[in-house]
Amino acid sequence: MKNAFGAPQSLLVLGGTSEIGLATARRLIARRTRTVWLAGRPSPALTAAADSLRVLGADVRTVPFDALDTESHEERLGKIFTEGDIDMVLLAFGVLGDQARDESDPVAAVRVAQTNYTGAVSAGLVCAGALQAQGHGSLVVLSSVAGERARRADFIYGSSKAGLDAFAQGLGDALYGTGVHVMVVRPGFVRSKMTAGRAETPLATTPEAVAGAIELGLRRRSETVWVPGALRMVMAAVRHAPRALFRLLPV
What we know:
The protein is built from nine helices and seven strands; from the N terminus they run βαβαβαβααβαβαβαα.
């Protein structure tokens, strides 16, 4: 299998300017990856991201992709697979939104949900079908610990990640035995441009640490990866805490 042991030869990043996506690409290029597709909205940031990977020795290509334009997903993402096999797809796009604002702005709240969930369902199914058709590959889905239990502070974002997480788990079960491996990654608070200015939570991590966990998870053929690993036990306790107690927790 071309993408065995967490060393894919080719990588497609959905969310081409994602800091986690780029950190993962850099790590994999250092091992074995030679072809990288960055899918995202055309912008100077996407161009700069591609250039930053080219200097590492990879053949990097960009493709226009908008999570909200689901009608274009099959055509645009499908074309990538006609250029050659893709060993790994990393679904790395998403938005945090602004909870305080979005609660009073249903249109903005729906945009968060459509980006993080509806767009991911569409792109995920298109890529899963293409991976299955070629007979091998990994689909890595960036979820979040926020999806484990809705918090007052970010339940709009958290609910969208909960939906994505459930979808990815089900997709993994549906593809079991087909040669396609689905891995769900659940980071905690990630220090990045997206979270700049937000209060850090305990066990905060970095894009580079998430990238390392992704690589290790691929080598182990893991189905679920927590970053950092200690969050698995923490969230098990949070998930089962009585609701009255949960409301009082500083989470």
